[in-house]
Each structure stands twice: as structure tokens, then as C-alpha cells.
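Re: the 208-residue chain
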Amino acid sequence: MSNFVVGISGASGAIYGARLVYALARHNHQVHVVISRTGRALLAEECDLQVGSDVTTATEVFNRYTGTSGNITVYADNNLHAAIASGSFITDGMAVAPASMKAVSALANGYAESLLGRAADVHIKEQRPLVIVPREAPLSPIHLNNLLTLSRLSRVSIIPASPAFYTRPQSVEEMVDFIVARVLDYLSPGMDWAPRWSGPGGDTAPPI
């Protein structure tokens, strides 16, 4: 069992964060979840997950969604006294999925005003795995510069929300899980969550 942090910021694509929480919890990891205000709204609008602003209610919603109990802790984004705000609280990695350009800017410039930003800042300074899943289009030069700054930091990985199609996905969930699987490769190697390319004649269709 490991400790992971999942940050869900205010970009469309809240399902990436929700499915990541689902995958980690279903594999019996402890998942610490922090959601921005806009992230809460998008979970409701895009995923029908009514987490609200009360962390107890949000935890119950995620427990029902994942079918687990006791694996998930949700924190308020303004709670800078939370355990995950301290480098002395040991975690095995963090992902921000989706990562809005506002969140990316804050992380690239060390602006840790929120718990999401502070938790990510802790992972950067402690050199623990941090995966950023940016969700924006098109990307401006400012966005690209901020992502480049982060990509140059030790143990920070950028995984754009760009699903592949060689697996012949049959649903949005399968497309999302392709990205979730790539995130898990960096956070918890060995957790197979989606089909992998195995070459011509393998279990998946060839890439185009």
C-alpha cells in the first residue's frame, strides 16, 4: 500500500482525475485528493460527481464512486494545514489531472497559494514523482514556457491528455484510461490499467 496525491484543478477533463482516483483506490492505495473550486464544479458537470465543498461529503462520494472504503481522503483546497502540505508527510507521488493553465503557471513559478499548489510544490522540492496532465488547446507561448520549466525539473513528467487510438477504444472511459495508465506508469509502475501496444499481430490494432 502506498500514499498518492491527486489534484483536480479547474480544467475540462475532470474525468482524468476521477478515473485516476478510482484506479489507485481499487488497487488498495491510499489516495489523498485535493480539488479546486472550479474542479468541483467540473466533476459535477462532466462526471455527475456532486462532491460539493464539504470534505466529508466529497470523501463519501468518492468512496461510492470507487466502491472502496477508507482508502480516500479529500482535503479542502484552502486547508494549508493538511498533512499533504508538509514535506515530512511521506508520499509516493502526485498527479495533477487535469492541470489547468492557471495551475501549471502556479507550479512553474512556485506560487503555492492553494493546497493543490503547495502539495505539488512539496513534491518538487522533495524530488518525488509529480505528473502533470495539461488540458488546454491551443497552447500559447506562455503555456508552453511554463510546461517546459516544469519538464526540466527533477522527477516531473508532463503527460498531455492525448489518448491514442491504436487500441480501438469503444468508449470515452477507455480513451481516458489510456492516459490514466500512462500516469500510473510513473506513479506506480507495474499497474496495468489499459491495453498496451504489443507490435503487429498483437492484442491491439497497429498505430496509424
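The chain is about 40% helix and 15% strand.
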